[in-house]
Amino acid sequence: MAGGRERVAYLLKQLHRASCMCPSHSHTYSQGTESTAVGKTDYAFEMAVSNLRYGEGVTKEVGMDLQNMGARKVCVMTDKNLCQLPPMKAVLDSLTKNGITFKIYDNVRVEPTDQSFLDAIEFAKKGEFDSYVAVGGGSVIDTCKCADLYASSPESKFLDYVNAPIGKGKPVKVTLKPLIAVPTTAGTGSETTGVAIFDYKELKVKTGIASRAIKPTLGLVDPLHTLHMPERVTANSGFDVLCHALESYTALPYNKRSPCPTNPENRPAYQGSNPISDVWAIHALQIVAKYLKRAIRDPEDREARANMHLASAFAGIGFGNAGVHLCHGMSYPISGLVKNYKAKDYHVDHSLVPHGLSVVLTSPAVFTFTAPMCPERHLEAAQMMGANINSARMKDAGLILADTLRKFLFDLNVDDGLAALGYTKADIPSLVKGTLPQERVTKLSPRPQTEEELSALFEASMKLY
């Protein structure tokens, strides 16, 4: 393990040295001058979030909510694994008790694809539903958002709303039907956001749709549901929360992002870090640092699992408005180009790199790379995760956060980098190629990156320990 650690340290130090060559290197965000080259920077940010209700057993209210909305024909979406579990039973019991007519769609794919989205959309169009309930993790909630969107806009082509440059990225101007999200994992925060992610099989990359218009009407955050998550699902979901918090806190500030929209409807959902998103990101990170290990190691630790469910929602509010950057941008080809890797505790019939795992494996390299742009934020994050920064130097902020993250992941038996998922150095060009279209998030990195720098980041992520 020592040899691998030395190799990683060498690669990260090389990245760090290269970053110090930046003429605008300072102890604060220092990208502003370059970002203005493509247009005037923005001057405002907008907060949008679903209504949220939190509490043990709150799922039993879903039938009453639908009744209050005047729902007459409801689509309930879930996946095959959840269909027989208590969260789904709680939803159906409530709907039945309150006389709600519903149909179940249980064919949601874990880590959805364009085709699995299209299948759900077809079901929604045929059903002519007036409201939706999504019971599951991010895959289910994202699928339901898209089914609602395209059933509400039946003349639209699939790529119309998909993020550019893969799709046309058109603004959503139709009114969607009410959607109630019942999250069963503590990870994606999808119950709070206007984002839906999928694998675009033709290009073997993840992309998605981002619009405030598709955020759920209501998120019912019931911590009882997290008690049913297996160990690795808990871990990988938690890693997603961790990176949501870290990336949104270190994202390019909203007033450094360009171009400034000519119309408020064109202001993106992911706007850059801002004073309000910062609050949610920091609080989520503090909860992760305190409770994630406990939640993974003891499924009966109700306090830990309940707090992680809250952290997921908190981080969702933060990144749903600030955005994420390189960890997520680089994660999409890691998931999309999966070979034969099958994660423990995921009962699926296809190769799968869980989203949270694909995100966190690049985090040590990424935050070493971005730290020179805002070292104080990277040091604060390391401190929140338990690092002693009393004698830390600003120029070492990235390495300190990277070491803190590696220790955190090692303690939780996380795979030793991308190589453990089946990737080799020969795959790096494809991984870089899959990252380049992810401009919606990569441009929110506080530090711009070249293809060569992305290659170095992937290489540094091949082994962690």
Briefly say what this structure is.
The protein has 465 residues and is an alpha/beta fold.
Question: Could you characterize the architecture of this molecule?
Answer:
β4 (131-136), α6 (138-152) and β5 form a beta-alpha-beta unit. α13 (375-384) packs parallel to α14 and α15 packs across α17. The longest helix has 23 residues, at 275-297. The protein contains 17 helices and eight strands. It is 45% helix and 8% strand. It has helices spanning 2-19, 32-35, 62-69, 86-97, 114-127, 138-152, 231-250, 275-297, 302-322, 326-336, 355-360, 363-370, 375-384, 397-411, 428-435, 439-442, 451-460, and strands at 51-54, 74-77, 102-105, 131-136, 179-183, 195-200, 205-210, 218-221. The strands form two sheets. Strands 1-8-5-4-2-3 form a six-stranded parallel β-sheet, sandwiched between helices. The protein has a two-stranded antiparallel ribbon with strand order 6-7. By secondary structure, the protein is an alpha/beta fold. It is globular, with a radius of gyration of 21 Å. It starts with a helix and ends in a 5-residue tail after the last helix.
Features:
six-stranded parallel sheet, 465 residues, alpha/beta, 17 helices, two-stranded antiparallel sheet
